[in-house]
Write a structure and sequence with these properties.
Shape: globular
Largest sheet: 5 strands, antiparallel
Number of helices: 6
Oligomer: single chain
Radius of gyration: 16 Å
Strand content: 25-35%
Order of helices and strands: EEHHHEEEHEHEEH
Helix content: 25-40%
Distance between the termini: 25 Å
């Protein structure tokens, strides 16, 4: 089960089938999809959000292979502004996207801190690893601020093409060092 979480400015609500219309209206923008893995269909189909939720996200949540939240401002709780998820996959444990009009405000860094806490404290995982395109510098800034480090480079296919990719890592011990409470 995916719990409700919150930060100073955000509500993290468990992803739900009723989120499909807002995802469909917000997600299909080049600024959002270009650095996502090539399995994301592009151009995004008219039923893309519905298919993603019913065929991918919700089954993974039900099988406890994923914990995925919609992101909403506390000041506008009915408006979905992005998604963040944790995944029980080899070397790719966290992914996210945020509508461009909400970027550059520290919101995704805030959401990442919250789900990292869930990963290490509630799920008691030993390591958090994330893959990201080297060109996705805004995402890299978040990883660096969270004391993650690059441990490996390789190529991966993204919506925008094949790009050099970095695997970032943060161990539970390292995370506890920075979050001793």
């Amino acid at each position: 089960m995916v719990p409700y979480l919150e930060t100073q400015r955000l509500l993290l609500r468990p992803l739900n089938l009723s989120d499909a219309p807002q995802i469909q209206a917000t997600f299909p923008r080049w600024e959002i999809v270009r650095y996502l893995v090539a399995t994301v269909p592009w151009p995004y189909p008219a039923d893309g959000a519905q298919k993603f939720l019913s065929g991918v996200a919700l089954p993974a949540i039900e099988e406890q292979r994923a914990w995925i939240w919609s992101l909403r401002l506390k000041t506008a709780p009915d408006t979905l502004i992005g998604i963040i998820g944790l995944y029980d996959q080899k070397d790719n444990h966290r992914g996210f996207w945020l509508a461009p009009e909400y970027q550059y405000q520290g919101l995704m860094a805030e959401a990442c801190e919250c789900v990292n806490t869930y990963w290490f404290r509630e799920l008691n995982r030993p390591v958090l690893r994330v893959e990201k395109a080297e060109l996705n510098t805004r995402s890299a800034v978040i990883s660096e601020a969270q004391h993650m480090r690059k441990i490996k480079s390789f190529n991966r296919n993204y919506v925008c093409g094949t790009l050099e990719t970095a695997l970032w890592e943060l161990t539970r011990e390292e995370w506890l060092f920075y979050h001793p409470q």
